[in-house]
TrEMBL record:
This is Alpha/beta hydrolase family protein. It comes from Chitinophaga polysaccharea. GO terms for molecular function: hydrolase activity. The keyword Hydrolase applies. Residues 86-214 form the AB hydrolase-1 domain.
Length: 290
């Protein structure tokens, strides 16, 4: 996480939170939680709109949380109507349409592509969302649209995929992780450090998550599920110049989880990796392998 990838409003809020964090840790935790459950508004380019117009779009109604049956509308996209079905999961603040080059490559190879706007993103319902909700929604989408041959996730979407396949009653033959986040606790600790928020806030934040989401933050960490992802084969692509998903952390993770195949590139960063030719070819080879 770096300042240049954060909106100005969030950086300014960080300064306020830093000042109030030590005397008012509870209030700081509540404001911080609200900010980080509110994804940034995304803008679509003309090429993305064109890709969206080529999709069959539908609305799927799911429940909001495992403990809350409030209906939530999820906008789904489908390209192609035959062949093995691939599910694409975008990252925080992202869109399925950011997978444009990958969607084109998959269709050319005879796959059917399915995706959806995550809660509080694009045309789906909600104003705020979080990883607990993302996992619950993904589980429902996978059960509704089964079977999938592969799930491909980028960044926060990749973390969502790995945790859902580890913790929920779903499985898939192939899993592709691109520039994956590895740990929600590490993410929050890094954010607190970045904004110079006093460490006394972290316990308050953990308690807030347990109360509101009925989950322990420490459980949302891929390191806790080594060899536990329910995918027959896993492939991970990452970049040494990525400032959001650090290559050193991913290197350490891969040493612990040697069954994961990987491709390490340099020069594309966190977002351009999604359209890198070597990465696209690596994904296609992985998906077509026996």
């Amino acid at each position: 996480m770096q300042h240049q990838v954060l909106p100005l409003s969030l950086r300014m809020a960080g300064k306020v939170l830093s000042a109030m964090s030590r005397p008012f840790p509870g209030a700081t935790a509540r404001i911080f939680y609200r900010l980080y459950c509110t994804p940034p508004a995304g803008k679509l380019r003309s090429t993305h709109v064109e890709l969206r117009n080529q999709a069959v779009m539908q609305s799927l109604q799911v429940s909001s949380y495992p403990f809350d049956n409030t209906p939530l509308k999820v906008k789904t996209y489908r390209w192609g109507s035959t062949g093995p079905k691939i599910l694409l999961l975008h990252g925080w603040g992202g869109s399925p349409l950011h997978f444009k080059q990958l969607i084109t490559a998959l269709l050319q190879q005879g796959y059917q592509v399915v995706s959806y706007d995550a809660p509080a993103h694009g045309l789906s319902g909600g104003k705020r969302t979080n990883l607990v909700q993302w996992m619950h929604v993904l589980e429902q989408v996978m059960q509704e649209e089964a079977p999938f041959y592969a799930v491909i996730g980028h960044s926060f979407g990749a973390l969502n995929a790995a945790l859902t396949l580890s913790r929920k009653n779903v499985a898939v033959p192939r899993l592709v992780l691109l520039s994956t986040a590895l740990s929600a606790p590490v993410f929050f600790n890094e954010a607190l450090r970045l904004f110079r928020i006093h460490p006394v806030v972290m316990p308050k934040l953990q308690q807030l998550i347990r109360t509101r989401l009925r989950e322990d933050l420490s459980d949302m960490d891929m390191h806790r599920y080594i060899n536990g992802i329910k995918a027959e084969k896993i492939w991970l692509g990452y970049d040494t110049t990525d400032t959001l998903a650090l290559a050193t952390e991913i290197d350490d993770y891969l040493q612990q989880y040697p069954a994961i195949q990987s491709l390490r590139i340099t020069g594309e960063g966190h977002f351009r990796i999604m359209r890198d030719t070597k990465v696209l070819n690596g994904i296609m080879t992985f998906l077509s392998a026996p």
